[in-house]
Amino acid sequence: MVDIEALRTQPELTGENVLLTQLDETYFEHAWRALGDPEVIRFTGTHTKFTEEQIRRFLASRPGLDDRADYAILRKEDRAYLGDVVLSGIDEDNRSGAFRIALTGPEIFGKGYGTEATKLLLAYAFDVVGLHRVSLEVFDYNPRAQRAYEKAGFVREGLQREALWWDGEWHDVITMAILKNDPRP
């Protein structure tokens, strides 16, 4: 059974180097800056040009939701904002959800923060919320993310051929998932 109250109250999650806390409007400046970074936009495949008001409204609406969990990723030592991680698309009947992560930029990539945040969110999804399956999509031009997902226990399940048009060419979308009973390194 899926614990909807765990989603609604969304506890803070603490790891060795990162802290996951409720994403809300207090993180607007950081989120807005990340949305202006070309590499962040490329890795997320975001074609939409958001307005400041759209982002403020979106962030303000995150607390208290019972169908997803949106977390800010903070560096534990100084609470610096590193990005966000999301568990969404909760399907209560099939005890499944979708995973997404976005780090703030190249200065954060490759330092293990994303891997740790991923592992924290998966532990929450499986051990607290009660999900059985968590899936994600990653673009073929992001092998670093693919390796990080594999390190967290995700398994490649499929390929959506030429599903993303980016910078004048088609790219494949790789689907990956992890089950509750799969090894979580």
Description:
- With 185 residues, the protein is an alpha+beta fold.
- It contains 6 helices and 8 strands.
- It has helices at residues 4-9, 28-34, 38-44, 52-60, 113-129, 143-151, and strands at residues 13-14, 18-22, 69-75, 81-91, 96-103, 133-139, 155-166, 169-179.
- An 8-stranded mixed beta sheet has the order 1-2-3-4-5-6-8-7, sandwiched between helices.
- A hairpin with a 3-residue loop joins β1 (13-14) and β2.
- The longest helix is centred in the middle third of the chain and has 17 residues, at 113-129.
- How many beta strands in the DSSP annotation? 8
Round the Cα radius of gyration to an integer and report it.
Answer: 16 Å
What percent of the residues sit in helical stretches (DSSP H or I)? 25-40%
Q: How would you classify the helix and strand content by structural class?
A: alpha+beta
Shape: globular
Low-confidence stretches: none
Q: Largest sheet, order of strands side by side?
A: 1-2-3-4-5-6-8-7
Number of helices: 6
Q: Mind describing the biggest β-sheet? A: 8 strands, mixed
Strand content: 25-35%
Order of helices and strands: HEEHHHEEEHEHEE
- Give the N-to-C terminal Cα separation: 25 Å
Write down the overall mean pLDDT: 94
